[in-house]
Amino acid sequence: MQFFLDTANLEDIKKYASWGIVDGVTTNPSLIAKEGVSLEKRIKEIAKVVRGPISSEVVSNDLEEMLKQGRTYARWANNVYVKVPMTPAGLQAVKIFNKEGIKTNVTVTFSAGQALLAAKAGATLVSPFIGRLDDISEDGMALIADIVKIYRNYDYKTKILVASIRHPRHVIEAAKLGADIGTMPPAVLEQLVHHPLTDAGIKKFLEDWEKVKGLQ
Ligand code: G3P
Fold first, then answer.
1. Are the C-beta atoms of 113 and 146 separated by less than 8 Å?
2. pTM higher than 0.85
3. Least CB-packed of 35, 83, 97, 139 within 10 Å?
4. How many CA atoms lie within 13 A of 117 on its CB side?
């Protein structure tokens, strides 16, 4: 399973990339706005830190404008993936980007039917937002199970990028289902590494070692 960071915070990206387990980064307009930086500047900075896919989202509902923005993003670095919304124009854009060799990530996806359309259009990645489904009392993980099954039935090459992850259980459940990628806020990556028994175990080993470390 690949781990992506869902943030535009450069310090966090540098910190967690140094752990050696970050395979890519996803951004969206809200995450960029939170940082108060220019999209171009930040995407170029991130692309220097992480060599895997970096998603940069188009901000228009118009096909021609999506194409213009996406072609520009793709020139910023060779690992930029163009994030395209799940709309008819978005699907058209994916098809065209595909022919041009531009990688895509179909975003704001909430149903199996939408994921099927993204695969048919030739999306490189599809991003189902599981946390936002859970927020409205739907079952985000059931959607991932459906998409995994559908993509396997037809051997679609589109990778399932589980997005809107809120906690470590989301990551574990997605991994059990065989999702390709999980994109998570830095806090979730931090939660994944910790366990109270790990902390207690390390503390005890260090204390016991103090008792014998000077012995010849
Ligand atoms: O980047 C898309 C997605 O991960 C957003 O997550 O937490 O805003 O629902 P969230």
1. no
2. yes
3. 139
4. 20
Radius of gyration of the chain from Cα atoms?
A: 20
Give the residue numbers annotated as catalytic, written as ranges. Answer: 83
29 CB less than 6 Å from ligand 1?
no
DSSP 61: S
Ligand 1 centre to CA of 100 (Å) is 28
CA-to-CA distance for 11 and 4, rounded, in angstroms?
15
pLDDT, residue 216, reads 85
Distance CA 17, CA 19 (A): 5
Q: What is the pLDDT of residues 109-149, one digit of tens each?
A: 999 999 999 999 999 999 999 999 999 999 999 999 999 99
How high is the pLDDT of residue 46? 98
Ligand 1 within 6 A of CB of 132: yes
